[in-house]
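Researcher: Go.
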Amino acid sequence: MSLAFDAIDGSKKIKLDYDRTTKVLGKYGNSLTLDQLKLGEILDISYSVHSGVIDTLQVSSDCWTYTDVTKFDINEKSKTMKIADTLYRMNDNVVVSYGDEIAKLMDVINVDTLTVKGNGTKICSIIVDKGHGYLRLTNDTNFLGGWLEVGQEIIKPISDNMLLPVPEGKYSVRVTNRGYVGVEDVLISRDEESKLDLSKIDIKEVAVGHVAFNIVPSHALLYVDDALTKYDDRVALEYGIHNVHVEMIGYDDI
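Model: Structure:
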C-alpha cells in the first residue's frame, strides 16, 4: 500500500509505501493506527530512500493545531485567514479536507467547524470537522417578515424563497409571525438542500407576553420593531422574536 504526501512548503510531492513494520506515532510518541491520522495532518516522515518504504510517521511536534474553530474569516484572494482576532497567511498549497476527500477553500463557509494546522505564522491545512447543508423555505407567504430559528444558534428574518446555510445535523426549526408559530424537526445533510414546506407544518396561534422595561435614564426612547413604544407600563408583545432599540442623545444606542 502507498500514501501520497505534499511538502508543507509546496516544494515537492512524494508517494511512499508502508507495511506492517511502519510505526505510526502521535505528537508525543504515543502509538497510533493509520486510521487515526486525518487527511490534512502534518507529519514528520522517515523512510528508506532505496525501498521507498516508510519507517516512521509521526504527528509533527513543530506545528500547531487549533480545534473547534468556528470564528474565522477566509480571504481566498489575499490567501489569508483570520481566526478569532489573529490574522494568518495560508500556504499556496494549503490542503482543505473533509473526511477522506480533498475539498476547496470556496467550499468552506463560516457555519463550518474546523481543525486548522500550521507552522509558524502560516496555515498548512484546514480540516472540516463539521460541514454544512442548506435549508430552503417554501410556501412561506404567510411568514414573510417573521422570524426563523434553527436550533439555538441561528435566528434570521424570513425572506421570500429563503435559502440558508446551516451546519449539518438535526434541528428543531421554529417559524413565528404575527402571533403564530410553527415547529418542525429538520435534518441537514452535508452539501444537500433540505426543504421545509410551511404550508404543511402545524401552525398554532399563541398568546402575547408582557415585558417590563427598566430603562435609565427614564426619558430615553424605546423602539420595538421600529415602532416608538411607551414603556411606563408593561408592553404587550406577540410570541416570537422582536427587535428592541433604545436611544438618547449623548448616549450610545442599544
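Model: The chain has a mean pLDDT of 92.
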